[in-house]
């Protein structure tokens, strides 16, 4: 667990009657993390500075830069005065292709995707999910009951997302946390790939809002089933259905919605 930043001593809680009390609690860590591949700066993400080896690997996989984890080599994590740098070499990626991807990312804005090229990229079909059977719903409720035990950062701060890989029986085999919902999933994907775990042999559980990016990352990672605690957007549901991803949402201790069946 990364070090947590304690709030200033002057932080106070204010009640409806106007009374106050001092509060001391940690903040979730959030710093700039520069991701560099093959010597080129690819992206700067606001992230929690731990499990960065998993992050730089998982990001390469879900971005489509690397086909598998063993193509991501020479990982080097460096802390600087301004943030962190996570460097890696992708052995299967030509420099020209990486430079083109970097140029494409420059066309993206903080408010979303811009330009015809990016619109076409969003509409590009996802790889089909491999054939799989239906998920036993009891596994979802078992995983939800145990998820808190795998969220030390969120227990301490109340401000971190988690993504977990869950076995068919509902046991949580691996989990990663981050202030960013996408980052948590990228970290999990990287950790699974580095550990040789097959996403199709269980399901992914995410505390994130189920946007299309979460669906895309899960599919590109090789998952067959995704469970989220929030409802999906219309595009997320459509993309999941087209790819053949089994999607469950609004997962609660007493109920879960099946959005797309196996």
Low-confidence stretches: none
Looking across the biggest beta sheet, what order are the strands in? 10-9-11-12-13-14
Q: Assign a percent range to the helix content.
A: 25-40%
Strand composition percent:
25-35%
Number of contiguous helices: 8
Query: Rg, please?
Result: 19 Å
- DSSP, total strands: 14
Query: How far apart lie the N and C ends?
Result: 36 Å
- Label the CATH architecture of the largest domain: 3-Layer(aba) Sandwich
Brief digest:
The protein is α+β, with helices and mostly antiparallel strands and 262 residues long. Helices cover 32% and strands 28% of the residues. It has helices spanning 52-62, 95-106, 116-123, 137-147, 152-157, 181-195, 212-221, 234-243; strands at 5-6, 12-14, 20-22, 26-27, 31-37, 40-47, 72-79, 84-90, 161-166, 172-178, 203-206, 225-228, 246-252, 255-260.
How would you characterize this protein structure?
The chain has eight helices and 14 strands. The chain starts with a strand and ends with a strand. The model has no long low-confidence stretch (mean pLDDT 89). The strands form four sheets. The protein has a six-stranded mixed beta sheet. Strands 6-5-8-7 form a four-stranded mixed beta sheet. Strands 1-4 form a two-stranded antiparallel sheet. It has two domains: 31-123, Ubiquitin-like (UB roll) (Roll); 137-260, Cytidine Deaminase, domain 2. The protein is globular, with a radius of gyration of 19 Å. By secondary structure, it is an alpha+beta fold.
């Amino acid at each position: 667990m990364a070090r947590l930043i304690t709030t200033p001593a002057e932080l106070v809680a204010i009640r409806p009657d106007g009374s106050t009390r001092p509060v001391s609690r940690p903040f979730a860590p959030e710093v700039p993390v520069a991701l560099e591949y093959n010597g080129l700066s690819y992206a700067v993400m606001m992230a929690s500075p731990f499990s960065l080896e998993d992050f730089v690997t998982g990001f390469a996989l879900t971005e489509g830069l690397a086909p598998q984890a063993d193509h991501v080599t020479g990982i080097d994590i460096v802390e600087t005065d301004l943030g962190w740098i996570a460097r890696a070499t992708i052995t299967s990626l030509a420099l020209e292709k990486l430079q083109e991807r970097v140029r494409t990312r420059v066309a993206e804005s903080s408010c979303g995707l811009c330009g015809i090229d990016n619109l076409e990229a969003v509409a590009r079909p996802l790889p089909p999910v491999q054939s799989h059977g239906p998920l036993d719903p009891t596994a979802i409720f078992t995983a939800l009951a145990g998820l808190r035990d795998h969220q030390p950062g969120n227990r301490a701060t109340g401000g971190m997302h988690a993504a977990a890989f869950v076995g068919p029986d509902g046991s949580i085999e691996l989990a990663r946390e981050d202030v960013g919902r996408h980052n948590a999933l990228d970290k999990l994907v990287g950790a699974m790939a580095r550990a040789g775990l097959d996403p199709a042999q269980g399901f992914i559980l995410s505390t994130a809002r189920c946007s299309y990016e979460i669906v895309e990352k899960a599919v590109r990672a090789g998952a067959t089933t995704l469970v989220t605690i929030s409802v999906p957007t219309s595009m997320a549901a459509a993309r999941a259905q087209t790819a053949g991803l089994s999607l469950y949402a609004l997962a609660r201790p007493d109920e879960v919605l099946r959005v797309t069946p196996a």
